[in-house]
Amino acid sequence: MVLLKQLLLGSLAAGILLYLITHLGHQDRVHLVCPSESSTCPAGGSVLRKLGVTYEQRRNGVATGRLVRQLPHAIIIGVRKGGTRALLEMLSLHPKVVKAAQEVHFFDSNKNYARGFDWYRSRMPLSLNSHVTIEKSPAYFTTEKVPERIFGINASVKLLVIVRDPVIRAVSDYAQVLEGKRRKNKTYPRFESLVVDQATCSVNTKYKAVSTSVYAKHLERWLLFFPIEQVHVVDGDRLISDPLPEIQMVERFLNLTPQISRDNLYFNSTRGFYCLRSERRHVTRCLAGSKGRAHPHVRPAVLEQLRVFFHPYNQKFYQITGRSFTWP
Ligand SMILES: *[C@@H]1O[C@H](CO)[C@@H](O)[C@H](O)[C@H]1NC(C)=O
Ligand SMILES: *[C@@H]1O[C@H](CO)[C@@H](O)[C@H](O)[C@H]1NC(C)=O
Ligand SMILES: *[C@@H]1O[C@H](CO)[C@@H](O)[C@H](O)[C@H]1NC(C)=O
Question: Is residue 327 part of a domain?
């Protein structure tokens, strides 16, 4: 399957090269297309392509001089299992958005943070000054020292948080850990026994899958440094069921001209999920389908106990953000 994909991409790249060779001189704006962000692309190729830099401009080195690595203008700070990858991929359909290829983990890792701002900048993609650089590291949201550190690098950076129903997010968080354990042939306790303290029968707030879902508590730490206007909350459940309105709100928040449309985000009824289509990149990808991981069965009484537990924090979160969610 992977091999087939590589073959397909490889022949696509070869075809495009041929096209370039035969059409150069006839065509003003030939877009150089690379099959993937990393592997076979010449350095900076994918960014140049994204920015619509023509092959001739590239060859003559006209545009390359203007390319810089910029510190992020916006950071997707979380939340883990909220849909951060989908959000980043959808946003980068916008021609003015460039993204860091990987999770950078600069502010949450002491080791990376000690490497300094220049190291951080070096993790960012090449871009033109007019472009918006975005990185995502979901651990930022819950790591205590991160807000202050980000404030120290750019007090006006825009922050994006994507959240889901906190109970579903907790189960999803558990399911990911469980999968990792199973892959290593390790046993792992049931969700119920981690979430409920066996001695007191109350919700175990120390368990990470629970504490991460207490969104209001984490957000309040961020608001010690940043005004709420600098934080935009994305509804991760709606990003799956009807992504375009969510993405358009983010475009507005980032002061981007509205560019992402139904052509880029279309519903695939066979799959039952939305897919991403980028004309520039000649790719179609369907995120949610492949990302979706089967959740374990959880006793309904435990789910109900969690719902009751999260309820006051959810109300607080709605109040702080000025946005209501339909979490039961
Ligand atoms: C800080 O973030 C703001 C908002 O995105 C951006 O306009 C500004 O250029 C950034 N400053 C630096 C030094 O990156
Ligand atoms: C997993 O562990 C069990 C029990 O130790 C063992 O019998 C089994 O062969 C292991 N399977 C793999 C794939 O390592
Ligand atoms: C829709 O999904 C099906 C099943 O995954 C896939 O075979 C098909 O190519 C997709 N169609 C489009 C237009 O994305």
Answer: no
Interval between CA 185 and ligand 2 midpoint (Å): 6
Give me the pLDDT at residue 18, please. Answer: 37
pLDDT in tens, 67-91: 999 999 999 999 999 999 999 999 9
In this prediction, residue 19 has a pLDDT band, given cuts at 50, 70 and 90, of very low
Residue 169 shares a structural domain with residue 63: no
pLDDT score recorded for residue 286: 79
- Residue minimizing CA distance to atom 10 of ligand 1: 73
Mutational test site, ligand 1, from 68, 71, 226, 250, max ligand atoms within 8 Å of CB: 71
**What's this model's pTM, rounded to 2 decimal places?**
0.81
Q: How far is the CA of 186 from the centre of ligand 2 (A)?
A: 9
- What is the number of structural domains in the chain? 2
Are the beta carbons of 284 and 250 closer than 8 angstroms? Answer: no
Q: Do 207 and 225 belong to one domain?
A: yes
Q: How far is it, in rounded angstroms, from Cα 206 to Cα 43?
A: 45
Parent domain of 86:
74-321
Pocket of ligand 3 (CB under 6 A): 268, 270-271, 275, 284
Mean pLDDT value of segment 161-186: 96
Q: What SS3 state is found at 169?
A: helix
Neighbouring-strand partners of residue 76 = 136, 160
Other Cβ atoms within 10 Å of 35 Cβ, number: 22
Instruction: Give the single-character DSSP code of 17.
Output: H
